[in-house]
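note to self: the first set is below, dont mix up w the second
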Amino acid sequence: MEIKRLTDALSVTPQIAPEDVKKIKDAGFRAIVCNRPDGEGNDQPTFEEIEMAAKEVGLECLYQPVTSGMVLDEQAVEFGKALRALPGPVLAYCRTGTRCTTLWSLSHAKDMSASDILATAKAAGYDMGGVVRRIVNGGKTPTDTGDAKFDVVIVGGGAGGISVASSLKSRMRDLNIAVIDPADIHYYQPGWTMVGAGVFDPATTARTMGSLIPKGVHWIKSAVAAFEPHDNAVILDGCRVVKYDRLIVCPGIKLDWHAIDGLVDTLGKNGVTSNYRYDLAPYTWELVQNLKKGRALFTQPPMPIKCAGAPQKAMYLSGDHWFREDVLKNIDIQFMNAGGVLFGVKDYVPALMEYVEKYDATLNFFHNLVAIDGPGRKATFEVKKPDEEPTTIEAEFDMIHVCPPQTAPDFIRVSPLADAAGWVDVDQITLRHKQYDNIWSLGDVMNAPNAKTAAAARMQAPVVAANVTADILGGSPQGAYNGYGSCPLTVERGKIVLAEFGYGGTLMPILPKWLINGTKPTRAAWILKEMLLPPVYWGGMLKGREWMAKPEKITVEAPKV
C-alpha cells in the first residue's frame, strides 16, 4: 500500500486489501472511498470485504465505482460532494490511484487553476495533463491530435495480445507497435483447473507482464477508456490519447461476479470457490481434500463463457479425488447447468457421460445460479425448462464451485466497435472489423461463433498478424480462421478427453488419431495438458512461434466463365 497525499483532506492509493484497513485507521484517516468497480481484476478483493474491515475499526466507507478511463463529469461532481460530506481526512483508492486523482482534478476545475491542479497531482506522482486538456475543451477530449502515435496499437496484453504482437514482430521487425494493458501480472489461466485439483502450483501460472512484452514493443501501462475509430484514436485512463494506423482489440472477457446475488460476499469462504480466479483455485483444492461427506454443487452459467468445459472439469477432477479416497459414496455431486446439454459438440458427450456415471453425478439442465447464501450454505437457482413456467429452487451445499456469468468488458460494450450484444463485431474468417477496415480483433472479446479458449487465441493470432501485415503492404487478407478451439476435458487425474473442433462443431484434431483419439479419454492428452502445453504457451505462443498454428490461406473462387 502506497498512500499519496493530494491535500490535507484527501490522499489516494492503489488497490488496498482488507488487512490494510487497520493501518489506514492508524494513519489518521476517517473514511475510505472505493473508485474501482468490483470484478475488474482477477485477484481483486471486493468492496464488501473492504467495507467489512472498515466497519470493524470504525471507518466510514463509500463505494463510487468508475469504469477505468471513463470519468464522467457527473461522477466528478459526486466525488466532490462525497469529500465534503465524509469525515476527513479521506483515503480514496482504485487500481492505481489515477481514477481517484482524475475525479479530484475535475471536481476542482472551477475553483483551482489548471496549473495548480497539475502541480498538486504531479507532486503525488500523477500526470493530469489530459484532464487540463479536457477542461479547456468543454469536457470533451480532443482526438484530432494525440499524445503518442504507433503503426499498430494492441488493446490487451493477455494471450491474444502478446501472441499477436510477437507474430507481427516476426513478420515486420521494424513495425512500431504498442500494447496497452494496465495489469502487472499475466496469467496462464488454463492452468487454474489444475491448480484447483492440486496438480499445478498457482505460482507457475503467473508471470510479470514486463517479462513477456516482446522486445521492441512499447508497453503502455494504462487502461483504455474509449475508442474514437473515426479519428483512429484510443483514449486512455486519465484522458490521454494514443493514435494508430491499425488497431487490434483483444482485452479478454469480463467475469460478472456481481450478477449472482450474494456471491462476492462469500467467495473464498463458507465452501464457496471458483477456478476462474487465481486466488480462489487453491481454495477449491482445499475444499476437495477436506470434504468427506455431503453435497458438492458445480455451476455453469448461460453461454458464452471462456473455456466452456471448465465448470465440468472441476467436477470430474473433484469426483476423481473422492473416488480415489474412497469417500465418493458419501458425496452427492450435482452439476447445475443453465444450458440444455452437457457439452456443445455431441461427439464428445458419450465419453463424458461415462465419467458422469462413474462419479454418480446428477445432471440438472436449465438451472441457472442467481443467488447464494454462503453462511447458510444455500444456493438459489432459476429453472427455465422449455415449454414450462420458470421456477426457483434452493439447494443446500457443503461445497460449491461457481462459474460466473461473463460479458464483454464495459468499455467494449459501450464502444462503436461492438455489435448489439456488446462483442467486437468482426468477419469470422479474417477477424477484421465489419465496419472499420483498419481494426481487427481476436480472443474472448470478439463475436465470431467459436469457443472462447486459449487454443482458439493461439490460432487467431497468426491469422490477424498475417492480415494486418498484408494490409500494411497494400494487399488483401491472407489468413483465414476456421473457428478452431480446443478444450482438454480433465475427466480424471491422468486422463483427458481432448475436444478439438471448429465452426459448427466440426471435429478438427491436430494430432493423429493413433496418438490421441479425442473422443476417448487418453493418458497422452493428459501429458499434453500437464507437461507440454504450459511451455508451448510461455515459450511458443507468446513468443510468436506458430507451431502447428500457421494460418490457413484464404481461398478465392475463380469467376465463372
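second set (the one i keep forgetting abt)
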Amino acid sequence: MRDFRNQNEEKRRADRTLQIRLFVLLFFALFSLPSFAQNYLSTLISIDAKEERLDSLLAQISRIGGFYFSYSSDALPKDSLVSMSVRQEPVEKILNMLLKGDYEYKETPNYVILRLAPNRLQLVSEDNHEYGKIHTITGHVIDDVTGERIAHASVYEKRLLLSTLTDKNGYFSLKVKNPVTSLSITVSKEYYRDTTVVLLAPVLVGKSDQNYGYHAGSDLNAAERTGVGRFLVSSKQKLQSLNLGGFFANSPVQTSLTPGLSTHGSLSGQVVPKVSINMIGGYTFGVEGVELGGAFNINKSDVRVVQAAGIFNLVGGGMRGVQLAGISNTVMDSVIGLQASGLYNHNLKNVKGVLMSGGINLVHGNVDGVQIAGLANITHGEVQGSQFGAFNYAKKISGLQVGLVNIADTSSGVSIGLLNFIKGGYHRLSVSNNEFTHVNVEYQSGVAGFYTVLKVGMSVVPNQKMFLLGGGFGRDFLFNDHFSLGSQLTSQNAYLGNWNELSNLYRAKLVANFRLSKNLEIYAGPALNVFVDDRSEEVARYKNYFPFQNYDGKRFNAKTNAWIGWDIGVTLF
C-alpha cells in the first residue's frame, strides 16, 4: 500500500512539473510573438535637432518609432524651425513639446494621426428618459473654457452608429432603441478635442457587433469638395465629416434612398458597410464588399471589391476590385483591378489593371496595364502596358500605343498610328525616286526603334500616269551620328484610271542613311517589290509598262509579280 501511495505522489509531482514547464513555454511563446497592438505614443526615443524644419523632425521621429504620421497639410507649421534634445522619452511627450499641446493624437495600424484640437468641449446631460423601447438622451455642448454653447457639434454613439448635430444653441437630442447597459456618448467638433461621456442605460441587451476605428489620411473630404459632392452631400453630413475626421465604423449592411436618407442617417459618411444598396444614390466612408447604386455611389475613402452604378461612382480613396458605371468613374487615389464606364474614367493616382471607356480614360499617375477608349487615353505618368484609342497620350511610354494619333514625351516602347509625336523622336519628310515611280514623298513619325510611314507616289510621264497612296512601318539601326541602316515595310494602293479596280504595291527596302547635317540626310539601297495588278483592262493614258516586264523577277500568276528594285532619296528634318 505504501509503495502505491509513493507511486501516486511521484506521479503528482511529475504532473506538476510538466504543468510548470508548459506554462513557462506558453509564457515565452506568447511574449515572443510580434505585437499587433503597438503603442506608438509610449515608444521611447532620443532626438537631437538644431534649427530643423518641423516636418523633417516628424519624419525622423516616425522612422525611429517605426510608424508614419498622418496629418492635414495645412494643420501644421511644417516649415517652422525647431531645436530640441531629449533622451529616451515617450513619443507622446515629445509631440506635446513640439506642438505645444494643441493637437490630439490617435493611433491606427502603422500610423499616428495628428489632429489640430487646441480647444476642449464639455457635454452637459440634461435629461435621460425612456418611452417604451426608445431611450432619449438630451443635453447641450459647451466650450470648456468660455462656457459658450457650441453649434453644429457631432454627438454620436460609436457602437450603435447613432448620431446627431447640436443646434444653433448647442442643444442635442439622441434617440436610442434598445440601448445597451451603458452608452458611450462622444462629442466631436473641428478644432476641439473629442470628449466621451459614459451614461448608464436601464435596459440590458446583447452587445453590438459593430467595430470602429480611425483612418489615416490627410484629406478625407476630397470627394465632398467636387462639384457633384457639393451638390449631393447634405450640409449635415459635411459637418459630420469635419467634426469626426477619420473616425469610421464597420457595418454589415447600409441602405439608402439618397445620401441624406439612409439607415445610418447623417452618420452614413462614417460607415464602412460590407453590403451597400442605394436606390438612387448613397454616401459612405468606404465599402468592404459590394456596393450597388441605381444612379450613383459616393465614398470618402477606399472601396473593395465590387462597385456598380447606373450613372457614376465617386471614390475619395482607392479602388481595388471591379468598378462599373453607366457614365463615369472617378477615383482620387490608386486603382487596382478593372474599371469600366460608358463615357469617362478619371483617376488621380496610379492604375494597375484594365481601364475601359467608351469615351476617355484620364490618369494623373502611372498605368501598369491596359487602357482602351473609344476616343482618348491620357496618362500624365508612365504607361507600362498598352493604350488603344483614337488618341493616346503618355508622359512616358514603355509599352504599346495603338491609335490614329499617339503622343509621348519619351518612349522606349512602340507607337502605331497615322501620326506619332514623340519628343526627340522622328518627324521627318523624305523625297525619293525609284524604278517604279518618279516622285515619292513620305512622312515618318515615331522613334528610331519603330516609326510609322505615310507615303504617296506618282509617275508623271505623259500617257504613263500612276498615283500611289499608303503607309507602313520602319526601323533604323543607328551606328553613329553619321551612318545608319533603315528598313521599311510599306503597302500602297495604285490608282491606274479606275477607282473600282485599285492595284497594290508591297515594298520592303533596306537603305544606307548618310547624315550630312542636323536636318539633312541622303540614302540609297535595294528594295523587294510585289505588285498585284487588279485591273480587268488597261485605261488610256495610265501606266501599263512596269519594271518587272524588263527586270528579272518572279511571276506568281497573271496578276502578281515580284522583282528587286532600288530607292534613292533625301530626308529633311
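remember for set 2: The radius of gyration is 37 Å.
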